[in-house]
């Protein structure tokens, strides 16, 4: 039976994961976006915001609409669709708010059209929306938001994306301080060139992180979750980031870093209990400095974007 309406969940994601700048990310079980996608008879894409978040409703500026149009253009499809945002991750929070919307839109439209594309083949269309938000076409939020798990982008041209296995007791704590950092602005802080010595550090750390995840070697993961490309420049926007990192690691975090372009901060942890106590340490870091903060404690989500 041809469906005329679907509801889709697009998960929040932690990208970069320390040394995987623009290359690595993972999906969380929650929070996430929820979007209803339904056919309309107007031949146009129409946007409705019931999420309570402030969102652009211009189809040139709304990231989900840009992704949806990119997919429809590729298919030469002139049907009309409503995108109804019913639940939205706060934009600018650093947990892949744009990616969650982009993947929800393309998964929903693909479903209503009878799935002409396999899920992984939707990545380039979702990336077109992400470009509007960040000014660059990275997929380190899009890939895990769509496919779930921990994903590594081995290469962009052509896209070569692999799932990285990880230990079953790996959990994550994310703290979201009420500060807004726009990825577009935050990317301008990063130098375009890095010295060879710095590049080698980053390569070693990313290789170490991948090896540590695959083999469940927590000390190796811990030594590897360090970003020398972006974090040193971006964390200047957060109060006492060095103290936050030190306190999280002392409380039992396996590795702490900026989630995407921030301001959210993630800690990889062994087990739910440890993630909960590290999350509390991170939350207090901000609240004791007068900044309201929310925490999310989650396993890595195997599911990625799904019809609900
Ligand atoms: N890799 C991206 C960045 C993620 O760090 O800018 C944020 O969208």
Characterise this structure.
- The chain is an alpha+beta fold and 308 residues long.
- The chain has two domains: 5-164, Ribosomal Protein S5, domain 2 (2-Layer Sandwich), CATH 3.30.230; 170-299, Alpha-Beta Plaits (2-Layer Sandwich), CATH 3.30.70.890.
- 35% of the residues lie in helices and 26% in strands.
- It contains ten helices and eleven strands.
- Strands 1, 2, 3, 4, 5, 6 and 11 form a seven-stranded mixed sheet that branches.
- A hairpin with a 2-residue loop joins strand 5 and strand 6.
- The longest helix is centred in the last third of the chain and has 20 residues, at 196-215.
- The two termini are 17 Å apart.
- The mean pLDDT is 96.
């Amino acid at each position: 039976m041809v469906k005329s309406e679907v509801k889709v969940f697009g998960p929040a994601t932690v990208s970069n994961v320390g040394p995987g700048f623009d290359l690595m990310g993972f999906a969380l079980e929650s929070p996430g976006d929820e979007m209803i996608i339904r056919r309309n008879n107007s031949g146009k894409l129409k946007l409705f915001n019931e999420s309570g978040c402030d969102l652009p409703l211009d189809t040139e500026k709304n990231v989900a609409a840009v992704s949806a149009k990119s997919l429809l253009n590729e298919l030469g499809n002139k049907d009309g669709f409503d995108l109804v945002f019913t639940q939205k991750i706060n934009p600018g929070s650093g947990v892949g708010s744009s990616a969650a919307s982009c993947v929800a839109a393309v998964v929903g439209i693909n479903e209503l059209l009878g799935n002409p594309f396999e899920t992984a083949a939707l990545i380039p269309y979702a990336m077109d929306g992400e470009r509007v938000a960040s000014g660059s076409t990275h997929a380190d939020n899009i890939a895990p938001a769509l496919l779930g798990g921990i994903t590594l982008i081995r290469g962009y041209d052509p896209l070569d994306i692999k799932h990285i296995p990880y230990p079953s007791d790996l959990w994550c704590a994310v703290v979201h301080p009420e500060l807004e950092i726009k990825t577009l602005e935050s990317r301008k802080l990063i130098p375009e060139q890095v010295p060879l010595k710095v590049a080698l550090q980053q390569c070693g750390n990313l290789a170490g992180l991948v090896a540590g995840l695959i083999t469940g070697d927590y000390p190796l993961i811990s030594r590897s979750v360090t970003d020398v490309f972006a974090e040193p420049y971006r964390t200047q926007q957060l109060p006492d980031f060095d103290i936050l990192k030190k306190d999280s690691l002392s409380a039992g975090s396996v590795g702490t870093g900026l989630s995407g372009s921030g301001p959210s901060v993630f800690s990889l942890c062994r087990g739910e209990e440890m993630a909960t106590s590290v999350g509390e340490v991170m939350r207090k870091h901000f609240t004791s400095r007068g900044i309201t903060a929310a925490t999310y404690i989650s396993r890595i989500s195997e599911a990625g974007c799904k019809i609900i």
